[in-house]
Amino acid sequence: MTHLTETTIRSYLDHELPETEHAEAVSHLASCPDCRTRLEAVSARAGRVNAHLSTLAPTPTESPRSAQTSLAQLKDKQRKENTMLKTIFSRRYRPAWIGLAVVASLAFALTLPPVQVWAANFLGLFRVQRIEVVEIDTTRLSEINGDATLGERIGELFSDSFKVTKEAGEPQAVASVDEASQLAGFTVRLPGNQSHAPKLTVQDSTAFEFTIDRARAQAILSEAGYTDLQLPESLDGAPISVSIPASVTAAYGGCPEPDMTEAERENMSWDELNTCVILAQIPSPTVNAPPDLDVARLAEIGLQFIGMEPEEAQKLSETVDWSTTLVVPIPRNAASVTEVSVDGVTGTLLRRYPDDGVPDRYTLLWVKDGIIYALSGFGYASAPIEIANSMK
Amino acid sequence: MALATDNVPTQSASAQARDVEAEFETVFVQHYTRVYGVLFRLVGDRDEAEDLALETFWRLWQRPPARSENLAGWLYRVATHLGYNALRAAKRRLRYEEEAGRDAIDSASLPDPAREAERRAERTRARDTLRRMSPRDAQLLILRHSGFTYKEIAAALGVSPNSIGTLLARAEEEFERMYRDDPPD
């Protein structure tokens, strides 16, 4: 007669065996002193472990608030959470994607919902030489984003005239920095202070063009509640073309893979993620628009549309050189913003406030020699500035 | 290129949203206390366990699993994962608190201070043992000792229910070995 396996013994103890197997185990145990001894040992050990672990159970004074109270708290959070920029700063998105998202949301706005496309395009008539981070109140934007009809109309505004002039290919993994440079068409730089070779990925370039129907755009603004904003005449029918060069990302340490499943990502430990640093680099996207287009006015409207106070929007639109400045809007109080000296230029360090035990995270943005760099990772210790200063 | 695909309005869009919300609330009320219980065992702090429980459901709300049939499995996988990571992150803080003698001061005001201090020491040692185990073993033990069936544990850990007996026996052996290796200071 075959002896009982460890699995069977342990399952038997928990009454987890199917009925027939349970009966078989009972009859085997009755006639097998060896298995009885093993059962006693496994049972005693399970009992001891249980005694230790049972001390961890919450006592009556440690029970949670009612599910209803907690649900109300969660709903409150749902209401408050902004929708637009969660791609950049949601805790759900691991920092690995922050840098990519910052570049992507401004450079390749098409992957984002229509409102963002609209806003980003207003903010996007430029060739990037510097970056300016502005804080906005996203309550208004959440309302707009939640309005499906308005979203569709904004979508239509672009889609009717929208034409992709250069399709982007799939991202390609490459083996060396030389190969990346060759494929991307610019000289890829990497930090010199990393001991391991990064995983390099090249994202193909893309280009598209569209025109705007001023009357329809104006109607959308009114519908969104901005009846006092008048779009400039020069906008009507203005052909706008956007060209986005190939970009390169270098991932160091325990970064999530782009093709990971949800479960695989959930199972990555913070210990692992703490080692993840991602550097994204892309030559400035270019936007061509007729020279008479009143970009400052458009930017001012765009900024108000995404939730900036009118006076603030006006002031910013006047001080910023819209042909050279990439404006990155972030939700108010979502992160600390510091100007830092880095890689021989002035950069911007965004630091997400830590919450609920989730480690601190950062994105460092800078522009050098026409290339936009975004370095993202976790923690204070990772020393983003040191990494950036070691760029070769 | 259809820009508006994310926002195609349909007749029933708001009705659908209400359904999703109602379903979410049902799941929340059904599982909240149990999710909390699992998290409390791992982190040992009421506020932190509540925060992490909310975080678990927040994740469910923001990015629900693609397949809904294993919703409970998904919830408890995320919860134990968050709890285990928090437990690891809390290591330094725990040590500091012990050194500062905070436990002793706290428990001095309770009816039976000696017993309370002993209970806390037991908890700390059990949790410290879990912290040093592999995430899967720790998750397995916590779920089993929170009263989960083998089938439920298997769903949360993404393993076959038939393997739980073996995994559990080994995890208990490992727990006992590590517990012995970490005598109280």
Key words describing this protein structure:
heterodimer; A: 392 residues; alpha+beta; 8-stranded antiparallel sheet; 16 helices; 14 strands; B: 185 residues; mainly alpha; 9 helices; 76% helix; 0% strand; disordered N terminus
Describe this structure in words.
The complex is a heterodimer of chains A (392) and B (185). Chain A is 40% helix and 22% strand. Chain A is of the alpha+beta class and 392 residues long. In chain A, the strands form three sheets. Chain A has an eight-stranded antiparallel sheet with strand order 3-4-7-8-14-13-12-11, sandwiched between helices. The termini of chain A are far apart. Chain B is an all-alpha fold and 185 residues long. In chain B, 37% of the residues are buried. The chains are: A alpha+beta (392), B mainly alpha (185). The interface between A and B is large, with 62 and 75 residues.
Compact summary:
The complex is a heterodimer of chains A (392) and B (185). Chain A is of the alpha+beta class and 392 residues long. Helices cover 40% and strands 22% of the residues of chain A.
Strand content of chain A: 15-25%
State the strand order across the main sheet of chain A.
3-4-7-8-14-13-12-11
Number of DSSP E strands of chain A: 14
How far apart are the first and last residues' alpha carbons of chain A, in Å?
A: 70 Å
In angstroms, what is the radius of gyration of chain A?
Answer: 28 Å
What distance separates the N and C termini of chain B?
65 Å
The arrangement of helices and strands of chain A along the chain is: HHHHHHHEHHEEHEEHEEHHEEHHEEEEEH
The radius of gyration over CA of chain B amounts to 20 Å
Number of helices of chain B: 9
The helix/strand series of chain B, from N terminus to C terminus, equals HHHHHHHHH
SSE class of chain B: mainly alpha
Ranges of chain A where pLDDT stays below 50 over 5 or more residues in a row are 82-126
Shape of chain A from CA axes?
elongated
Count of β-strands of chain B: 0
Structural class of chain A: alpha+beta
